[in-house]
């Protein structure tokens, strides 16, 4: 019931009278970069950590033929606990719908945080197609399997309650991250990510990332494709794993990254954080996504 209530409130927010004005506002800018395909994931709309303004800037400046939303676009887990839906989050949804109306093919592959959308696989909402997963062929003929990746997270699959515990515990870490960066801002120091530091320094977290990447690449090999595109662990990566191309598009909570395909089929990770620097004092902390084991494992 609580879950349905959160969804109803999100739907009501999207149906506000100001919808047309917001839609026009977020779609006014002329794109400055064009790609064949773009992949983004782990936006976590509905949480204070979501970098909606940075994403809107990205969506305004980037044009593509196909846009893949690779899961965790709306954070149903946190919306059930605490309602949070500012206008900027509304604007992101409106901008995505506008792209679909203007001819961009928008394909949504739900993740674990927006798993409620898996009930609507093979449906179309405002031009946005909802699918379980996808096989994409690049301009140079390579096949890529697209999946959120949570099916290869043992904690999500075997102990979901622990994932929720970790999610709650990590909120505390994000708040601590916020206070630390406000202090750093007063001292004239640049933003520093506690969560990113932990991901790269805590041995168990590093091991989790490595195991996840290998498992996803192994499944891609079984499916007979050239590579895999995923999200989930919020660690952007583009590398070869035993002959399989592993591509993780990162996230739009902390890393601000996307995976793009150029007209010739070449893949590249775009780091939008290099172009979108917000003062730490104005940001409620650039927050990382929920994790499955507090401070150790992602989701």
Characterize the structure shown.
The model is unreliable at 14-23, 154-166 and 278-299 (pLDDT under 50). This protein has one domain: Metallo-dependent phosphatases (Purple Acid Phosphatase, chain A, domain 2), CATH 3.60.21.10. The longest helix has 27 residues, at 160-186. It is built from 9 helices and 12 strands. Strands 4-5-3-2-1-11-12 form a 7-stranded mixed β-sheet. The protein has a 5-stranded mixed β-sheet with strand order 6-7-8-10-9, with helices on one face. The protein has 299 residues and is an alpha/beta fold. The chain starts with a helix and ends in a 28-residue tail after the last strand. The chain has helices spanning 2-14, 19-26, 52-61, 76-81, 87-101, 154-158, 160-186, 194-201, 203-222; strands at 33-40, 62-69, 105-108, 124-125, 128-130, 134-137, 143-146, 227-230, 237-241, 244-248, 257-261, 267-271. Strand 1, helix 3 (52-61) and strand 2 form a beta-alpha-beta unit.
Into which percent range does the helicity of residues fall? Answer: 25-40%
Number of helices: 9
User: What is the strand content?
Assistant: 15-25%
Taking pLDDT < 50 over at least 5 consecutive residues as the criterion, the unreliable ranges are 14-23, 154-166, 278-299
Shape: globular
SS content category: alpha/beta
Q: Architecture in CATH? A: 4-Layer Sandwich
Compute the CA-based radius of gyration.
18 Å
Number of domains: 1
Largest sheet: 7 strands, mixed
Output the CATH topology.
Purple Acid Phosphatase, chain A, domain 2
**H/E element order:** HHEHEHHEEEEEHHHHEEEEE
């Amino acid at each position: 019931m609580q879950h349905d209530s959160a969804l109803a409130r999100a739907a009501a927010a999207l149906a506000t009278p100001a919808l047309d004005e917001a839609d026009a506002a977020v779609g006014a800018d002329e794109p400055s970069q064009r790609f064949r395909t773009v992949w983004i994931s782990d936006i976590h709309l509905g949480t204070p950590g979501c970098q909606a303004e940075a994403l809107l800037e990205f969506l305004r400046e980037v044009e593509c033929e196909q846009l893949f939303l690779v899961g965790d676009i709306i954070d149903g887990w946190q919306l059930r606990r605490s309602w949070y839906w500012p206008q900027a989050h509304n604007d992101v949804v409106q901008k995505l719908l506008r792209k679909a109306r203007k001819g961009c093919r928008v394909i949504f592959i739900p993740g674990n945080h927006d798993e409620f959308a898996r009930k609507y696989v093979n449906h179309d909402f405002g031009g946005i197609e909802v699918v379980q997963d996808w096989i994409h062929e690049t301009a140079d003929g390579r096949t890529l399997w697209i999946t959120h990746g949570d099916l290869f997270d043992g904690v999500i699959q075997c102990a979901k309650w622990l994932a929720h515990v970790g999610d709650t515990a990590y909120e505390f870490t994000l708040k601590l991250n916020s206070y630390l960066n406000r202090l750093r801002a007063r001292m004239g120091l640049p933003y520093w990510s506690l969560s990113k530091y932990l991901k790269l320094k805590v041995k168990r977290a590093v091991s989790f990332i490595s195991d996840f990447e290998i498992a996803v690449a192994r499944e891609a090999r079984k499916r007979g494709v050239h590579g895999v595109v995923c999200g989930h662990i919020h660690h952007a990566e583009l590398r070869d794993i035993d002959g399989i191309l592993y591509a993780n598009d990162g996230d739009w909570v902390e890393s601000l990254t996307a995976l793009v395909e150029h007209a010739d089929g070449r893949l590249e990770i775009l780091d939008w954080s290099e172009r979108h620097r917000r003062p730490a004092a104005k940001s409620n902390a650039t927050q990382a996504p929920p994790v499955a084991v507090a401070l150790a494992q992602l989701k």
